[in-house]
UniProtKB/TrEMBL annotation:
InterPro entries (alphabetical): TBL, TBL_C, TBL_N
Family per record: Belongs to the PC-esterase family. TBL subfamily.
Keyword Membrane: yes
Protein name: Trichome birefringence-like N-terminal domain-containing protein
One example GO MF annotation: O-acetyltransferase activity
Coiled coil: none
Stretches assigned to the Trichome birefringence-like C-terminal domain: 91-339
Signal peptide: 1-26
Entries under PANTHER family matching the protein: PROTEIN TRICHOME BIREFRINGENCE-LIKE 38, PROTEIN TRICHOME BIREFRINGENCE-LIKE 9-RELATED
A Pfam family reported for this protein in Swiss-Prot or TrEMBL: PC-Esterase
Domain Trichome birefringence-like N-terminal intervals: 38-90
Amino acid sequence: MTTNGWIRVAIFGVICLSPWLCLVNAEGHVHQNANKLNCNRYEGSWVRDNSYPLYDSSKCPHIDKQFDCVKYGRPDHEYLKYRWQPQSCDLPRFDGKSFLTKFKGKQIMFIGDSISVNQYQSLICMLHSSVPEIRILTEGRGHVINNTFQGYGVSVILSFSTHLVDIVNGPNGRILKLDSIQNGELWKQMDVLVFNTWLWWYRDGPKQPWDYIQIGNKIIKDMDRMEAFKLGLTTWANWVDTKVDTQKTKWNEPKLTNCAKETVPVNGSRYPTGLGRESYVLQDALNRIKKPVQLLNVTILSQLRKDAHPSSYNGIGGIDCTHWCIAGLMDTWNLLLYTELM
Ligand SMILES: *[C@@H]1O[C@H](CO)[C@@H](O)[C@H](O)[C@H]1NC(C)=O
Ligand SMILES: *[C@@H]1O[C@H](CO)[C@@H](O)[C@H](O)[C@H]1NC(C)=O
Ligand SMILES: *[C@@H]1O[C@H](CO)[C@@H](O)[C@H](O)[C@H]1NC(C)=O
């Protein structure tokens, strides 16, 4: 990785776990950050703000039809009008030009499932609205998509990966290799990495993208999914530590909550059901990483936004209470990422 001046401290952004984000500092230097906020910016509430949304989604040509709620007929626009207000400090205003200037010539990669697609498209819209005159060169399709803001040479890249660890084709089917991360070779070359994984770990039936699980030399048909998740995250945590410069419990797929007709956030700063067990597994994996790790802990602020899902207002049909409308909540995730990086 190229290093000079402040970019020595280029941050390895890591969304560890949807919907958490965590950042790993590339070289162990702590980035002296003028905007460093001395407060827990993840504790707060949603407040109405007339200056929101941050951009007009109809002017952003980079939104999948899955997320483009206004285009697909969402009649209420109130959900666009909320700003995250931490309890004891204010977030900076997003300034796309300074971001592009600061990250000139750098590559920012989002690695993970469709939530990563969701988040990276929001970031592209936020940047695009700051510099609408700048051309965006899009290269690649499928699993790696590279969008470069020409003139600044800033690349915002998506690397699609359901589990972060490898899925390979074996003689008898697809194998989820809980102890292997081959794609890491590409990831290592990036200046910022934003990881995210969670959604796919409990999927089974036709939605399960593997046939066997491999751990070391052992191949098994299935295992407790939380345990698998823990092993996968441990592999990831070791990968971060070594490669980045610088069974017993039953698991049920969470019920799809019905998000239709929700038009306002939960009022307040606490969500009634609290945090799931996966958040403690994540906490464990993070504690094991020796490199400095920052967590963008967006779980609770996202739970409060039951109004911000596409529901039926998407271009692929069905009710979607998993992803988030663009514009919308993802812009706040990116504002928090911006706050970490600037
Ligand atoms: C992304 O595109 C830019 C501009 O073409 C290129 O310099 C960079 O190497 C590409 N990155 C990847 C990972 O493909
Ligand atoms: C939230 O609750 C507070 C106090 O209970 C109330 O003053 C405020 O108007 C409510 N906000 C919204 C957005 O409903
Ligand atoms: C995220 O924040 C919540 C509330 O502030 C806290 O209870 C939780 O432990 C945090 N999660 C992690 C993984 O640090």
